[in-house]
Amino acid sequence: MQGETLQEEPKEKTAEKKNAFAKYTAKDSVFSTLFQDKKYLIQLYRALHPEDTETTEDALMDITIRNVLTNGIYNDLAFRVGDKVMFLVEHQSSWTMNIIIRVLMYLVQIYHDYFEEQDADLYGSKKVHVPEPELYMIFTGERASRPETISLSKEFFGGKECAIEVKVKVLYGDKGNDIISQYVAFTKVYNEQVKQYGRSREAVTETIRICKDRDVLRKFLAGREKEVISIMMALFDEEKIMRTHIASERREAAKEAVRGGVENMLKLGKMSAEEIAGCFPELSVEDIREIEKGLLQTI
């Protein structure tokens, strides 16, 4: 509006944008947000079962293990279609057969939750109803000559018949323009932009621009662009934080390892804190004085 002055953006906001990094879990965040919306979840279901044209969004129930408040297991996506079929969908950018074990653990937890929800009597004589499981992995790396199905018996027991079997169907997003193919295409565009711009805001915004131009998740990205940028960004470099934490833990472990020797030298009283610190490069003079203070308190 004419005559209206633009307010200057707060300095802290500007600093936030400058220091923002794309999350290492950026693609995971988009996956979770995308399929929490039932209009995209039904598209996923129809990509898995194109023959079923009757099932509606209302028949889909999200049963993903989230464990927001605890450190228990959690998975990428799980949903039921009524009480008939139970779907577990994981996604991976690096190839690992351990996904089979993880999916088995998720399936057991989800069945446990289902039987509790149904108040099923597992110790009674009447056979309980069990939804049929379908297990999938969406693989966003290079396919090369990788298989369409991976199984527990083949990968972990040399193909021998065993007491339990788990089969996971691998989806590569190479079946046209369905929602799975679009998600895989999105991850590949994002990887290209990270190579060019690093894990920056520019990599995120360019990914969104390119995908919209190519009609890849266009409606999802156009309708929620600010939210998508937000969920893909982090204000701190998570890897750097982890490296700093590990280094700190190692320093503390080193201090504990030499503590006994320092205490013995302090008890002898023949060396100053500065001289003892010279013998132990892991410790500062302040560290030595802290140990000395602790010794005096125990006397």
What would the keywords be for this entry?
299 residues, 6-stranded mixed sheet, two-stranded antiparallel ribbon, 12% strand, extended, disordered N terminus
Protein described:
The chain has 299 residues and is α/β, with parallel strands linked by helices. The chain is 52% helix and 12% strand. Strands 2-3-4-5-7-6 form a 6-stranded mixed β-sheet, with helices on both faces. Helix 11 (273-279) crosses helix 12 (285-298). Residues 1-19 have low confidence and may be disordered.
In short:
With 299 residues, the chain is an alpha/beta fold.
Distance between the termini: 76 Å
Backbone structural class: alpha/beta
- Total strands: the figure is 8
Number of helices: 12
Into which percent range does the helicity of residues fall?
A: 40-55%
Strand order of the largest sheet: 2-3-4-5-7-6
The low-pLDDT segments are 1-19
Order of helices and strands: HEHHEEEHEEHEHHHHEHHH
Secondary structure: elements and pairs:
Layout: H1 11-19, E1 21-22, H2 26-36, H3 38-48, E2 60-62, E3 77-81, E4 85-92, H4 98-117, E5 132-139, E6 149-151, H5 152-156, E7 167-171, H6 179-197, H7 201-213, H8 218-223, H9 225-232, E8 233-234, H10 238-268, H11 273-279, H12 285-298
Parallel strand pairs: 4-5, 5-7
Antiparallel strand pairs: 1-8, 2-3, 3-4, 6-7
